[in-house]
C-alpha cells in the first residue's frame, strides 16, 4: 500500500494476536540481545531480523543496557507507523522516568531534581515547567532569525578558515556544535556564554556531563577485540555523577548568573529558583544542545549525499525567493520555499535525531499494527524504534530513499507520519503532552540553515562516519555562490 492514505486509524476487524518474541533466559537473554544490538548485528539489523523471525512488527525483546544498570530490560517493541503513535497518547501511556529508556540516571546529575523531560503528564510539575519553556520560546520569537543567522555567519567563516588552513578540512560537528550551544544560551539568557564562567567550553562541558549519563546506551564502534571490554566497562555500573560534577557546576553557574531575568520569570510562575535553573541547564544541555548538535550533522549529511542536482535546485529556489523579497530572509520568505521545507521534513523522516521513545502502559490496552491487534498489560514497557516507523513501506513509497520533494503538494498529507518530535508533525506541543516544545523552532532552524548555506555556497564536498549517537561530518570543500 505504498504512499496511499496514512493507515493509522482504528480497525476493528484486525485479529487479536499474542505478541510474539522472546526475552530469553533471565540475565543471559538480555546479555545476548545487547550483544546482538551493539556488536553482532547493529540496531537496524537487530530489529529487521526479529520482524522476519516472528513475522510481526510488534514484538517482545530486551533493550540495552540490561544488567546491572537496568533492572528490567523487557520491552514490547513497536516497529511500524501504525502502532508507534500509541506512545503519544498520554491517556494510555505513562512517561514517568523513561526518557533514557529502561534505566534512569541518578538525579545527582541534575541537582537532585527530576527535570521536566523525566516527568509524566499527570505530574503537576510537568505542566508548570513545560508552560515555562513554552513561554520562554514564544517570548523569544523575534530573536530566532537574527540571532541564528549571525551565528551561522561565524560558523561559515570558521569552516572556511579551517579549509584554508593546513589540514584543508573542517570539523563540521565542532563548528556547528559551538554555534548551537551559543544560540540556545543566548536565546535563554540574552548573554554570550563567553561572558560567563562557561567561556568557549560549553559544548565540551555538556558532552562530558551527557556522556556519563548516556554511556550505557552507546558504543564507540571500536575493533571487535575491544567489544567485550567496552561492554563490561560502560554497562556494568553507572558512571557516578560526582565524576562530572565540575562540568555540570560550571554550566549551572553560567546559566544562574547570566539567566537572572528568565529565572525571575520562573519564580513568578511559582517555580523554585534552583529547580528552574537545573531545568534550564537540562533543557540547554540535554534537550537542545544534544538534539541540535546531532540534527545539523544529520541534515548536512543527507543534503550532501543527495548530490549537486539537489544543491542546485535548493540554491535556485532559495535565491529566487530571497531576490523577490528584496534580499530579505523573513518568515514569509521561508514559507515560500516549498522544496527547502520538504527537504527538511525528509531529513527528519529518514533519520530522526532521537530514534527511541519509551512509555509504560497506564492500563491494559490494545495496540494495532497494520495487520493485527495486540494486548499490552498495565505497567509493561513499550518501546518505539522510530526509524522503522518513519520508513514504514506501507506508508512511504521508497522509504529508504531520500526524496527531497516528498512532502510537496499532495505529499503534505504524509506529514502526520513524521514523528521526530515525539508527536506527529501536524500536532503541536502543549503543557499537557510530551511533544518537544521546540518542535517548530527546530524545523525553522533547519530551514534557515539551508537558506544561509545556499545563499553563500553552490555546493560542497564532505566525508562522514557514524559515531556514538549520530554522524561525524568532515567538510572537504565549500564552493562559493556563483550567481547571486
Ligand atoms: C533537533 C533538535 C531536537 C530534537 C530532535 C528533539 C527531540 C525531542 C524529543 C524526541 C522529545 C521527547 C522525548 C521523550 O519523551 O521521549 C523532546 C522533548 C523535549 N525537548 Fe526537544 N528536541 C530538540 C531540540 C530541542 C530544543 C532546541 C529544545 C529547547 C530549546 C528542546 C526542549 C525539549 C524539552 C524541554 C522536552 C521535554 C518535553 C516534555 O517533557 O514534555 N528540544 N525533544
TrEMBL record:
Amino acids binding heme: 436
Keywords, ordered alphabetically: Heme, Iron, Lyase, Metal-binding
GO MF term list: heme binding; iron ion binding; lyase activity; monooxygenase activity; oxidoreductase activity, acting on paired donors, with incorporation or reduction of molecular oxygen
Biological process annotations from GO: fatty acid metabolic process; sterol metabolic process
Pfam families (UniProt xref): p450
Cofactor(s) the protein needs: heme
Family that this chain belongs to: Belongs to the cytochrome P450 family.
Name this protein carries in UniProt: Allene oxide synthase 3
Amino acid at each position: 500500500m505504498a504512499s496511499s492514505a496514512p493507515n493509522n486509524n482504528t480497525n476493528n476487524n484486525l485479529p487479536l494476536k499474542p505478541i510474539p518474541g522472546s526475552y530469553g533466559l533471565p540475565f543471559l537473554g538480555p546479555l545476548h540481545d545487547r550483544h546482538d544490538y551493539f556488536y553482532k548485528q547493529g540496531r537496524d539489523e537487530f530489529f529487521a531480523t526479529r520482524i522476519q523471525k516472528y513475522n510481526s512488527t510488534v514484538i517482545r525483546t530486551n533493550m540495552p543496557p540490561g544488567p546491572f544498570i537496568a533492572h528490567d530490560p523487557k520491552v514490547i517493541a513497536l516497529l511500524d507507523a501504525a502502532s508507534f503513535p500509541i506512545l503519544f497518547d498520554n491517556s494510555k501511556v505513562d512517561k514517568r522516568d523513561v526518557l533514557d529508556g529502561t534505566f534512569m540516571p541518578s538525579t545527582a546529575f541534575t541537582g537532585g531534581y527530576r527535570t521536566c523531560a523525566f516527568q509524566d503528564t499527570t505530574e503537576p510539575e510537568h505542566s508548570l515547567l513545560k508552560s515555562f519553556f513554552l513561554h520562554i520560546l514564544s517570548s523569544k520569537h523575534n530573536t530566532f532569525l537574527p540571532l541564528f543567522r549571525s551565528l551561522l555567519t561565524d560558523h561559515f567563516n570558521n569552516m572556511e578558515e579551517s579549509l584554508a588552513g593546513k589540514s584543508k578540512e573542517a570539523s563540521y560537528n565542532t563548528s556547528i556544535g559551538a554555534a548551537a550551544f551559543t544560540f540556545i544560551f543566548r536565546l535563554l539568557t540574552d548573554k554570550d556564554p563567553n561572558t560567563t564562567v562557561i567561556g568557549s567550553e560549553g559544548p565540551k562541558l555538556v558532552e562530558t556531563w551527557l556522556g556519563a549519563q548516556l554511556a550505557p546506551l552507546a558504543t564507540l564502534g571500536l575493533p571487535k577485540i575491544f567489544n567485550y571490554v567496552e561492554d563490561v566497562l560502560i554497562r556494568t555500573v553507572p558512571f557516578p555523577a560526582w565524576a562530572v560534577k565540575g562540568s555540570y557546576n560550571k554550566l549551572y553557574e553560567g546559566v544562574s548568573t547570566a539567566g537572572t531575568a528568565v529565572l525571575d520569570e520562573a519564580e513568578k510562575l511559582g517555580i523554585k529558583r534552583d529547580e528552574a535553573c537545573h531545568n534550564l541547564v537540562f533543557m540547554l544541555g540535554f534537550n537542545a544542545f544534544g538534539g541540535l548538535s546531532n540534527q545539523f550533522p544529520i541534515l548536512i549529511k543527507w543534503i550532501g549525499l543527495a548530490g549537486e542536482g539537489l544543491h542546485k535546485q535548493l540554491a535556485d529556489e532559495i535565491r529566487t525567493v530571497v531576490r523577490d523579497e528584496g534580499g530579505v530572509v523573513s518568515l514569509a520568505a521561508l514559507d515560500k520555499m516549498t522544496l527547502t521545507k520538504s527537504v527538511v521534513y525528509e531529513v527528519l523522516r529518514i533519520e530522526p535525531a532521537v530514534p527511541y521513545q519509551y512509555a509504560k502502559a497506564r492500563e491494559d490496552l490494545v495496540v494495532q499494527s497494520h495487520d493485527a491487534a495486540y494486548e499490552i498489560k498495565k505497567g509493561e514497557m513499550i518501546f518505539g524504534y522510530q526509524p522503522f516507523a518513519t520508513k514504514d513501506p506501507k506508508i512511504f513509497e521508497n522509504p529508504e530513499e531520500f526524496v527531497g520533494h516528498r512532502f510537496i503538494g499532495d505529499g503534505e498529507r504524509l506529514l502526520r507520519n513524521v514523528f521526530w518530535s515525539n508527536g506527529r508533525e501536524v500536532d503541536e506541543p502543549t503543557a499537557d503532552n510530551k511533544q518537544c516544545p521546540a518542535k517548530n523552532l527546530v524545523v525553522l532552524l533547519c530551514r534557515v540553515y539551508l537558506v544561509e548555506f545556499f545563499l553563500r555556497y553552490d555546493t560542497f564536498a564532505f566525508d562522514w562516519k557514524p559515531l556514538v549517537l549520530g554522524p561525524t561530518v568532515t567538510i572537504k570543500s565549500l564552493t562559493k555562490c556563483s550567481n547571486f
